[in-house]
């Protein structure tokens, strides 16, 4: 009984992770501008990966669950830091990967622009 419930929970978490990552890919393709794409890529893909890693409960193997927990914690700690570093570097270089990026710079308050 417990095995069946854990397997169902594992399958549901894998499905949730795959759907979340698919929506992330759509968001990255659909969004315009570096900062919008970065938001979609960093937040949603991390949540999808953590959901897939949480599916390790279906294995009932302590070593696999421990490794998946460590990887999930690493993702939770490093993804926001990496996204912030990329956004800060792009802002400082005035990186424009396409013409629509100038709209992103217009949303940043001018007082922040003087902090360079």
Q: How much of the sequence is in beta strands? A: under 5%
Q: Sheet with the most strands?
A: none
Oligomer: single chain
Distance between the termini: 60 Å
Radius of gyration: 18 Å
* Average pLDDT score: 82
Number of strands: 0
Structural class: mainly alpha
Number of domains: 1
General form: elongated
Spell out the helices and strands N to C.
Answer: HHHHH
Our count of helices gives: 5
Helical content class: over 70%
Low-pLDDT segments, ≥5 res: none
Write up this protein.
This protein is 79% helix and 0% strand. It has 116 residues and is mostly helical. It has one domain (2-113). Helix 1 packs antiparallel against helix 2 (34-54) and helix 2 runs antiparallel to helix 3. It is elongated, with a radius of gyration of 18 Å.
Write the layout of secondary structure elements.
Blueprint: H1 2-30, H2 34-54, H3 62-93, H4 101-106, H5 110-113
